[in-house]
Amino acid sequence: MRNLFRSVGQILLVVFVVAGILSSASASPKKLLGAVGGGKSEGAVGPTGTTGPPNQSGGSGGILEPPGGGILDGVYTPEHLPYRKPIPYVYIREADVMWQKRIWRTIDLREKINHPLYYPDDDLAKRPSLFRVLQKGIMKGKITTVFEFDPSTMEFSTPLTLAEIVKTMTEQIAMKDSAGNPLMDEKGNQVYKPDTLRPDKVVQYLLKEDWFFDKQRSVMDVRIIGIAPVIESTDEKSGKFSYRSLFWLYYPAIRSYLAQNYCYNPYNDSEWRTYDEIFQKRMFSSFVTMESNVYNRSIQAYLGGQGMEQMLESERIKDDIFKFEHDMWNY
After folding, report:
1. Element (H, E) at 196
2. Is residue 292 in some structural domain?
3. 177 CB-side CA count, 13 A
4. Is residue 247 part of a domain?
5. Count of CB atoms within 10 A of residue 143's CB?
6. 95-150 per-position pLDDT tens digit
7. Least confidently predicted of 11-20, 68-77, 285-294
8. What long-range pairs does 257-260 form, CB within 8 A, spacing at least 24?
9. DSSP character for 110?
10. 94 lies in a domain?
11. Cβ distance 12 to 4 under 8 Å?
12. Region 188-211: what's the mean pLDDT?
């Protein structure tokens, strides 16, 4: 009886094996060959022997050959960046904003934590610097909300045309002769030639932002309103050194463009962040230069020449915002 059950089990095993072979034979020849060869041929195989995703052609993403041919500088085809969207804002009702403060702050690119916004100072296709991204966006017509910077009010002024923007982003370079000496004209004046402003000339960014407390969500939130590139400037007559803002960019209008450009991540090359994510997640260091006040004056206006006092005043303003949020809660 035991031998009978064993024989029946062996017969059933043979039947299942034969049924499996017959079902595989009804599949396509490519899938059958893939099953015999180890199951690695479901997708298309490129000239380098790399297998593409299942049910896709050899020119699709995920293989070492880019769709247009040539070489691919990496291990995969970047597919998501052109379709990246900015991080959506939470809808805010006017009635829910119970407190608000306008702040102007400066991002100094010479600080180490801000270097991903400053470098590279040359052209790299994969990760251009922030100013290079803004330059290309303006020249391609993808950034159009550019306004004149009014240093007296720190607010948006007259909208600028493309010709005016190009003039603002042009610097005068002193000419030299073959010996390296300054080149002079017939009247003895230094000869200059116009050239496009290089990204390494931008050393700071000025942000205009609104901090507010949303009682609907019970959180302190912030929205960046404008961003302005800042360069170093020296007065030719007096020789006095100062910083000069080029123009204002309306930040909400350029978020979609910033979301399609990567910023370098020093810790992981596969987890680069977009410039929109850098600003949204506050991944930068900055200091406050002005808060909204009755006199409409900056910290430097009433504490000029006192560097340490200006930094302490900047920290006081940031601390006041923190304390206001902290005092909204009962423990």
Report:
1. strand 192-196
2. yes
3. 7
4. yes
5. 21
6. 999 999 999 999 999 999 999 999 988 776 678 899 999 999 999 999 999 999 98
7. 11-20
8. 257/133, 257/137, 257/142, 257/143, 258/86, 258/133, 259/84, 259/85, 259/86, 259/87, 260/81, 260/82, 260/84
9. T
10. yes
11. no
12. 85
Among residues of the chain, what percentage have pLDDT more than 70? Answer: 75
Do the beta carbons of residue 291 and residue 102 sit within 8 Å?
yes
- Which residues 6+ apart lie within 8 Å of 319 measured at CB? none
Calculated CA dihedral for residues 117, 120, 123, 129, nearest 10 degrees: 0
Please tell me the total count of domains within the chain: 1
Please check whether residue 63 is in contact with residue 77, taking contact to mean a CB–CB distance below 8 angstroms. yes
| Three-state secondary-structure class, residue 103 | strand
Residue 147 phi/psi, 5-degree rounding, is -130, 155
**Cβ atoms of 217 and 90 closer than 8 Å:** yes
State the residue range of the domain holding 151. 87-157+196-327
Per the CB < 8 A criterion, the answer to whether 148 and 161 are in contact is: no
Which carries the bigger pLDDT value, residue 154 or residue 182?
Answer: 154
Q: Does position 227 have pLDDT exceeding 90, yes or no?
A: yes
Whole-angstrom Cα distance, residue 205 to residue 210?
A: 16
Q: If we measure between CA atoms, which residue out of 119, 142, 141, 144 comes closest to residue 132?
A: 119
Task: Specify the DSSP element, H or E, that contains 287.
Answer: strand 287-291
Token pair for 51: 């297998």
Record the pTM.
Answer: 0.75
Is 73 a member of any domain?
no
In three-state secondary structure terms, 91 is coil
DSSP state of 258: H
Relative to beta strand 219-234, strand 248-250 is antiparallel
User: How many whole angstroms separate alpha carbon 218 and alpha carbon 221?
Assistant: 9
**How are beta strands 241-245 and 219-234 bridged, if at all?**
antiparallel
Distance CA 71, CA 63 (A): 11
Q: Which residue has the higher pLDDT, 292 or 186?
A: 292
